[in-house]
Amino acid sequence: MTSHVSKVVSLRSEAPSAPTFQAAETENAERKVDWVSLLVIAPAILILLGFLALFFYGVYQSLTDMRLGRPVVRFVGFANYIALMKTSDFWNSVRVTVVYALSTVFIEALIGLAIAKLFATGVTLARWLRPFILLPLVLPPMSVALMWTTMMNPQSGILNYFFSLVGMGPFSWISSPTTALISIILIDVWTYTPFFALIIFAGLQGITDDLREAARINGARSWATFINIELPLVAPYILIAAVFRLIESFNQFDIIFGTTQGGPGNSTSALSVQAYISAFQNLTFGRGAAMMVVNWLIVLIGATLMVRAWQAVRRRVN
Amino acid sequence: MGTALLATSVAVANSAAAAEMNWRQFEGTTITWAYDIHPYADALSAELPEFEKLTGIKVTPELYPDDSYWSKMTIQLTTKSPAWDVFGTGIQPAWDLAPSGAIEPLNKYLNDPTLTDASYDYNDFFPALRSALTWKMEDGQIAPGEGGEVWAIPHAFENIQLFYRKDILDNYQIAVPTTPPEMAAACEKLKAADPKITPLGVRGVRFWSSIHTAAVSIAQSYGVKDWVMKDGKLDTGLDSPESIAFHKDYVDMIKKCAAPSFANDNWYQVVDGISSGRTAMAIDSNMFGFWNDVKGQPASGKIAFAPPLHAPNAKSFNSNIWIWSLAMNAASEKKGAAWLFMQWATSKKVTLAGAVTGKLVNPPRTSTWADKAWIDYASQPEFNNFVESFKTTQDQAALAFTPRVGFGEAMNAWAVAMQKMVNGDDVETTLHALAEEVRAGL
Question: Which residues form the signal peptide (chain B) (predicted)?
């Protein structure tokens, strides 16, 4: 199928006898089109074009002064982007987005690795815990946000109650600009760490006992075995999980909007949240679209770097 | 404005009274009515079989949770979808939707005697409510004044009041405060007496709804204007000396009185606090106090009412209003049937029926407030001084915001600035930055 498809469109041209004849010869090139193959892959191409068209329509909207509720839409070029970049709030949103995404992915990878390692030991308690640890992952993010909002209430929340039992707190959690970002990172970590644990556990399961046995015979301690053998072997798994989670974290909306709506002040106003507020609460759709395009660029850069890292690690492991 | 409104109202009333209308003229039609999940919707839903019997029109209610309703409404109307025929709205969302022609102006229906029953009596609605829902569009902007169109019909409304737990204030011998400094002092006394009690429940979320209750009502008494004309040009008054004075008092009051979760508190947290007794006082929509006074509720009989706070040197208070109204989708393909439904739903009979079941509170018609059935119901001992406080407040109640397309953007920025100031940012610096942001959006 692959070779067949590669021959869908082929251009055959004779070697030019002189540079002056090149243009004419190109025009005369015989074009062979495999219409049947084109017909077969047409739906896929159409769907792809549909996705791309929607994306580029979004980009176009970011170049207009589109306001929901106003009939006239004018093309304003990069005015939305320029206006955004002149405000400190926008750069704050970029900072919040990047800090949120990188922190959550890093912490989730670390804890996920620890949990996966625990699962891999086969300890009875770990076996029992396995189904429960996955529970946060199957909860709708908005429910997670509402649940944590209640638990993090500085006065009546259960978290402060527990801390009070050991003489700590009360903490402001999501109600203070100094702790709000850390608090929502904590919620994300609670929700998505099981995803990392699951993927890394699968990676650890793929390592045969021969390797561990060989290391043990050669005198390696368990910690050294983990660092020098297991960790490099599961690194591609960690990185592929990180790629998915990084993309999701850059786009995270439900948890942030469901808990703080971007506040207090602008302390948790990630780009996705601020774009929603611009588009659907302030009705300045063009500006909201510009924020989403910037967010998309950040996702693209982040994901590209992670994929490259994953490819490099995989090559090294192979 | 008042004269113009009167002229419009009289014209509407006269022409509507001229002939008989046939309630069954759109028999067999099915229409969709969209609304927030709300006791007001419950009140109307309970009466729907009566409407269907009267007109032969079937009504399909589409009710959405509050958090998602407004976005859904914006999308539905701006995309010109004909799926909804009648929808519930407030005044402010209607300002942003009107320029695109998404909302059907209603004068022609009100003035058509074949479509409006002679007994409808549009002038029976409180003048402040009619005034708030009447304007014309000029160069894409809201222009209240002569010749305005009616854009929606009041269904029920809220005025902003201070409501409080009588049992708590009596227990600690605290007088009902009337100004922000008095409130701050009362809060300190309450906290000293019982640290577990939150003295005052106020909305603080990062959305203009947290401004439209306590903040804007009290701000008005300080002389704060959201928009002003300076040298013939529109400007914001949010960095004026009056605004700085108000914010200093208000922020100080919030710091001393509100829950630590202020930035996350919406109306449901305010209501939960007052009904559970964790909060001693609240400044919010008065009917929240009323609904918790209803027999059988845990706080029944414990919540009493007072007008909102005012500036220490002001002679009187101000109270903002929020009007739940019924509007018609301009893209509706069943406008006649939609109008009959709106007319019936806001009629004297349905308004009274909803009020005496304790749901359609506050009723928007003056005739309801003169009706013995409603007054007897609302004057029952468990509602304490609800009726008196309503009457006192309603005299001073009016829309506190300047009607304007783009209202949400500026007022959301105000809510964000309020959070910053409560969290310790300098009041003057924050207000100047807010004003610059608002000016940039003009």
Answer: 1-18
